[in-house]
Specification:
mainly alpha; MetI-like fold
Length: about 270
């Protein structure tokens, strides 16, 4: 037999892996086909979509810039206040839950599971659903929006903060234990210096997200620029709609710049 006959044919995946990959691709294609059939896309609506878009932009031009001082600025500032207060409240509520969710700080499985259940429950409900709930309790306004932002953010902040605590190095904690440091000192001088960069990154990133989310909460009556946008849409004031959308876009860009700048100062 020749030397080539003894050479093994190298393949990246085993036959079982290739069959599994084919099964995954088949499931993905089947899910896409089922989704398209369920959505029931109407081809006639797609055909004249470019004309509708062009007509919409024509209605938005020229932008009613004169409306900004009396109709947009106050609502835009309220949106930023909702995002800021909601983030601050979320940090206050999420930190204790994150501590309880970290197994190295709280080595009690039932407490860990209860804390993680709280975090999952917060993340599983969309901000608009939280807003609808609080609008029903407290009525329309910024309070409902602030609480919606806060309760939505608890799961995000608490989960990432708890994971950062679980990833801390054990060395400084053992040194403090050997010196007889109390629990509060271990937390302040052992854990906090290690998770401080992660904490500020999480807080700033969440505030950036909340600025964007609070801009649409007004569509369900939870205060902010969304209420102004909803009123303009209902009255078909497209020139004002364009102005509000531009204002939202501008504030999101400014929030991104501010977060980057503050992060450099803190970290």
């Amino acid at each position: 037999m020749t030397e080539a006959a003894h050479e093994k044919l190298w393949r990246r995946f085993t036959p079982a892996q290739r069959v599994a990959r084919f099964g995954v691709y088949l499931v993905i294609v089947a899910a896409i086909v089922a989704s398209v059939q369920t959505v029931e896309v109407i081809p006639e609506f797609l055909a004249d979509a470019p004309e509708q878009v062009a007509d919409l932009f024509a209605r938005m031009w020229p932008v009613d810039l004169a409306y900004y001082p009396r109709g947009v600025h106050a609502a835009l500032m309220e949106t930023i206040h909702i995002a800021s207060l909601g983030t601050l409240l979320a940090l206050v509520l999420a930190l204790p839950v994150g501590l309880l969710a970290a197994h190295n700080l709280c080595p009690f499985t039932p407490v860990n599971l209860l804390a993680k259940l709280v975090l999952v429950s917060s993340r599983s409900v969309n901000s608009l659903v939280w807003a609808l709930l609080f609008v029903g309790i407290f009525g329309p306004g910024a309070l409902a929006g602030t609480l919606a932002i806060a309760f939505r953010s608890i799961g995000f902040v608490g989960k990432l903060f708890g994971e950062a605590l679980e990833e801390t190095s054990r060395g400084p904690i053992e040194a403090l234990d050997a010196a007889g440091a109390p629990a509060l000192s271990r937390l302040s001088f052992g854990y906090w210096p290690q998770v401080k960069p992660a904490f500020w990154s999480i807080a700033l990133f969440r505030w950036d997200i909340n600025v964007r989310e609070s801009a649409v909460l007004g569509l369900v009556g939870a205060g902010g620029i969304g209420m102004t946008l909803d009123a303009a849409l209902n009255l078909f004031q497209w020139d004002r709609v364009a102005l509000i959308l531009l204002a939202i876009f501008a504030i999101v860009i400014l929030a991104e710049i501010a977060v980057t700048w503050v992060r450099k100062l803190l970290l």
